[in-house]
Specification:
- The longest helix has 19 residues.
- This protein has a 7-stranded mixed β-sheet with strand order 3-4-5-12-6-7-8, sandwiched between helices. The chain has a 3-stranded antiparallel β-sheet with strand order 1-2-13. A 3-stranded antiparallel β-sheet has the order 10-9-11, with no helix packed on it.
- α1 runs antiparallel to α2 and α1 packs across α11.
- Helices cover 41% and strands 16% of the residues.
- The chain is an alpha+beta fold and 359 residues long.
């Protein structure tokens, strides 16, 4: 049940209720039940970890994509090229989460045989948080690396027109508190944060965006392009992601992709992904790798803090969010709360049935 609060977080949704409602909504949209559970879990787990822009907030968009045929509810991803440790997967217009998970499972299986495996994906859609797939691989004892192409939002350093997507890079290894989970955009911020600030009437942080003349702006309504992370270095990373996610997979480059929510009905957005799995057993060995990873994480976390706030490793803030939200519930923005309140009313009977069946 959605709990209304008087705090600045608005509404809270229980984790299990979120999973049931999201899954039921996807099933009603035509997605097979097992696949619906996978997508729901990905969205809920992402929200639990505090990555709200890529969590439950995306469910309405995914339902719209299914309703318009941009995403194929009955998709059957198929391997179209197989060289053993290198494969190309055609997603058949699937929801990007399902395409990404199919690639991660395939990469894990092949890496166990070859020590390393790379899976390119074409003909897909938005796949949410890249860490969903790298953390899946980390859970299999691998180092996971994932990138995806995305519709252009980011101008090259010194340029005006947006050419690149926010083009995330994720790297994960290890499990739980003994793990590293990096998931970062190659822009200063994702466009969802700009929209969030616009809705709240708050200014943007310095260096986040530029206007139509390429000048820095703090006004959300003037934001024409996002700025690359670290100037020309972020541009270079964005180009590397486009190389792997689009060029290598035979997918359209970022500037030819339609924006999320603006896809052509009945046609996949054509997003490309790239997933790489590395089995430490083929390199230093699992035991030595685990010891080295523990040393890396422990050394970073034990670094002398400059301000009194402990130094953290990638993934630590997200684990802290997850511990808190599993107890308190997942905070929802007003729009997402309205969507889930409507789902709660519409599917209450079905939700109860599924809850009882799962006990």
């Amino acid at each position: 049940m959605i709990r209304r609060t008087q705090s600045d977080i608005g509404s809270l949704l229980d984790e299990q209720e979120a999973r049931w409602l999201a899954s039921i909504a996807l099933v009603e949209a035509g997605v097979p039940e097992d696949d619906a559970d996978l997508v729901a879990d990905a969205l809920v787990d992402t929200s639990l970890r505090g990555i709200d822009t890529h969590g439950l907030r995306l469910l309405p968009q995914y339902l719209d994509e299914l309703a318009t045929g941009v995403a194929n509810a009955a998709a059957c991803p198929t391997v179209v090229r197989d060289r053993g440790a290198g494969l190309l997967l055609d997603a058949d217009g699937a929801l990007g989460v399902l395409a990404g998970l199919a690639a991660a499972r395939l990469a894990a299986d092949r890496a166990k045989a070859f020590g390393v495996a790379a899976v390119g994906v074409r003909n897909s859609n938005h796949f949410g948080a890249a860490s969903v797939y790298t953390r899946h691989l980390a859970g299999q004892g691998m180092i996971g690396i994932a990138v995806t192409s995305a519709a252009s939002r980011v101008a090259p350093f010194g340029g005006i027109e947006p050419l690149f997507g926010t083009n995330p890079i994720s790297v994960a290894a290890g499990r739980g508190d003994d793990g590293l989970a990096l998931d970062m955009a190659t822009s200063q911020v994702c466009f969802g944060e700009v929209k969030h600030r616009r809705a709240e009437g708050r200014p943007l942080n310095s260096g986040w965006a530029t206007d139509c003349d390429g000048r820095p702006t703090a006004e959300p309504d003037e934001a024409y392009a996002l700025s690359p992370l670290g100037g020309y270095k972020g541009q270079g990373l964005a180009m590397a992601v486009t190389l792997l996610g689009a060029v290598l997979t035979g997918s359209p480059p970022d500037w030819h992709l339609e924006q999320v929510g603006e896809g052509t009905p009945g046609r996949s957005r054509g997003v490309g992904h790239f997933v790489l799995a590395l089995d430490p057993g083929a390199f230093s060995g699992h035991e030595q790798f685990a010891a080295g990873l523990a040393d890396l994480l422990g050394t970073v976390r034990g670094a002398t803090p400059a301000t009194g706030t402990p130094v953290v490793a990638p993934g630590d803030p997200q684990r802290a969010h997850e511990r808190e939200r599993r107890v308190r519930g997942i905070p929802l923005d007003a729009r997402t709360a309205e969507v889930f309140a409507a789902l709660e009313t519409t599917f209450d009977g079905i939700s109860v049935t599924r809850k009882e069946a799962s006990r």
